[in-house]
Specification:
This protein is of the alpha+beta class. It has one domain: Transcriptional Co-activator pc4, Chain A. It has four helices and seven strands. A seven-stranded antiparallel sheet has the order 4-3-2-1-7-6-5. A hairpin with a 2-residue loop joins strand 5 and strand 6. The longest helix is centred in the last third of the chain and has 14 residues. Keywords: Cell cycle, Cell division, Septation, Sporulation. It comes from Haloechinothrix halophila YIM 93223. One of its GO terms (biological process) is division septum assembly. Belongs to the SsgA family.
Length: 134
């Protein structure tokens, strides 16, 4: 793993189920606007979601997201939780995350690249070269 990478591996709980789901959350300073989450759906299969770091940061404070990824912070019997929902043409899923864990991950990303300093890390020339190389 590169020195500029933040990674959190953990089990999360399916909505209304006790079945754990293994997930890997990662953030790279050289891709400062994005967070990648991979979910293990079988021993050999992982599903990957990429979404804006700003969405997670906003979702820790208030409901956020109107597209394929949404976050809703709430409390349940004293537990601080974060509802994480994803949706695609193939279906949708919801998980409850421990909000303190999500906040710790978000803070690690902010330590790596503070808000409003993303463009200092982002190589727009490389991105343009990648998308125009057809």
């Amino acid at each position: 793993m590169a020195a500029n990478t933040v990674r959190l591996e953990r089990f999360i709980t399916l909505t209304n189920e006790a079945a754990p789901v293994y997930s890997c959350w990662s953030y790279r300073a050289d891709d400062p606007y994005a967070i990648t989450v991979e979910f293990q759906t079988s021993p050999e299969t992982w599903v990957t979601w990429v979404f804006a770091r700003d969405l997670l940061l906003a979702g820790l404070k208030a409901p956020a997201g109107i597209g394929d990824v949404r976050f809703v912070p709430f409390e349940d019997q004293g537990d601080r939780l974060l509802l994480f929902q994803v949706e695609s043409d193939e279906g949708r899923a919801s998980w409850f995350l421990n909000r303190e864990d999500a906040e710790a991950f978000a803070n690690m990303t902010l330590d790596a690249v503070p808000v409003e300093q993303e463009e200092d890390q982002f190589d727009i020339d490389m991105l343009l070269a990648d998308i125009t190389d057809v």
